Amino acid sequence: MQQFVNVTLSGLIQGTVFAAFALALVLIWRSTRIVNFAQGSMAAATAFIALALIHSGQSYWLAFAVALVAGFVLGAVVERVVIRPVEGGPELNAVIVTLGLFVALQALIAIVAGSSFQSFPAPFGLRGFTFGDTTIALTPNSLFVLGSVLVTMLLLVGLFQFTRVGLAMRASAFGQEVARLLGVRVGRMLTLGWALAAVVGSLSGLLIAGGGLVYPAYMDSLIVFGFVAAVLGGLDSPVGAIVGGLLLGLALSYVSGYVPRGSGLVNLAALVILMVVLLVRPGGLFSSTTARRA
Amino acid sequence: MPEDGTAVLEVTDLTAAYGPVRALDGVSLSAEAGKITAVLGANGAGKTTLLRTISGLVRPVSGRVTLGGEDITRAPVEAMVGKGMSHVPEGRGVIAELTVDENLRVGSLFRGKVGKDEFDRVYETFPRLLERRNNPAHTLSGGERQMLVIGRALLAQPRILLLDEPSLGLAPRIVAQIFGLLRRLVDAEGLSVLLVEQNARSALSVADVGVVLNLGRVVVTDSARTLMADEDLRHAYLGF
């Protein structure tokens, strides 16, 4: 029983980070129909900015805030400079550009920060809460992870559902040409979409780094998991990305917790899930493709 | 509000091409205030390209477009609606994922804050939309979509409304309803309409002026009544 609780808790916490990363992918997919393979490198770059600040003696929170702002700027710059020329062109072009950016950014991080493993501090304790004499896999830091992802999601929902900018962003995402004819500055909205997505990506990068080790490629596995989570939810649906992330986190946690030698099977399990989803429900669990075709 | 008879929109010698193919070849026409101007012609005559070039979605090779005297030939698409031109593209142009209400709100975003009474007026004009207000636009029927896009265009308070094939895929009864409504808006509110239609008979029955386009050139411009009466022209270009 205790093991089940722990495996479930750590699955959920992992899942929220997957969810945040998947959400970043979905935000970009929705608005520009591009899978941003560079999301992981972009997040890693901002995490290294945070690490540099922390090493220079600044507080974790200042570093955290600067990293998120850096994510925003990086997202906007990437969209304007690198993505804009391939938007609306053949899909393969965009795929190759984001893959290229992924490799280039990772190399840049290695050049600037070195490619050795460095420890990244966590803002809160990493020791599990204890009830009587049992310790559960829920730490103050994991509450911070849950809380910050939850707050981010609520903020995004608020932005998209209740603000004029959010409405303009959704209109630009779903009907570029119509939105332009209605006077929406679509280009600006796409830039903003990338910038916000990069902030969410950076958040997931910081959360996964907290209390662990970072190196230029530390986000690589998260790209796989985040992508699986996003596809699981339907690539188009922010809610789907969140549910997909949580489901994937749980599934992987159960695999590594209950399957003998399961921790080595986690990557494999993620890909099996991806395969099954694509075979059984290619549109994902929350797909709105039927709506789009109407 | 300009006097009836003055040109709101003037197109001079407009030429547009897709690669080597000329879709518009020196088209000139004007849409007058308080009138419905119908551009007619067969498939491929260049009707849709004409509207898309006027609103900037297609950049012309040469020629000029002026709106109320102002040269808007090279103005960005996003700016057109602010200058008083609403373009409803072919295929209804609803944003399928947004609700009816959100679609309307997008249409008025560029104006800043817009009073609730203006939305109420749209819902009054189209009671069907009020019933479907919180439904996603992809659940609407073709006629309802057409009402939505016209209502949305009106929220922009345009001087001129560009409509691309509003009758496409609609039942004749709905077409008559939509055209009747256009006529009322033009007569009662002084709206000006530039209408592109393949359904020449319906369009001429509601329009004041007809412009017949063939292979990217204007064949004839005349009052709708005269065009309606010209049997040879109807047979040759309008298919009825």
Number of E-type strands of chain B: 10
Helical element count of chain B? 10
- The strand order across the widest sheet of chain B is 6-7-8-3-9-10
CATH superfamily of chain B: P-loop containing nucleotide triphosphate hydrolases
Tell me the major beta sheet of chain A: 2 strands, antiparallel
What is the total number of structural domains of chain B? Answer: 1
Main sheet strand line-up of chain A: 1-4
Radius of gyration of chain B: 17 Å
Distance between the termini of chain B: 36 Å
Number of helices of chain A: 12
The assembly state of the depicted protein chains is: heterodimer
Kindly describe this structure.
- The complex is a heterodimer of chains A (294) and B (240).
- Chain A is an all-alpha fold and 294 residues long.
- Chain A has a domain at 18-220.
- Helices cover 73% and strands 3% of the residues of chain A.
- Chain A contains twelve helices and four strands; from the N terminus they run ααααβββααααβαααα.
- In chain A, β2 and β3 (134-135) form a beta hairpin.
- In chain A, α1 (2-32) crosses α9, α6 (164-174) packs across α8 (186-209) and α9 crosses α10.
- The termini of chain A are far apart.
- Mean pLDDT of chain A is 90; it is low at 289-294.
- By secondary structure, chain B is of the alpha/beta class.
- The mean pLDDT of chain B is 90.
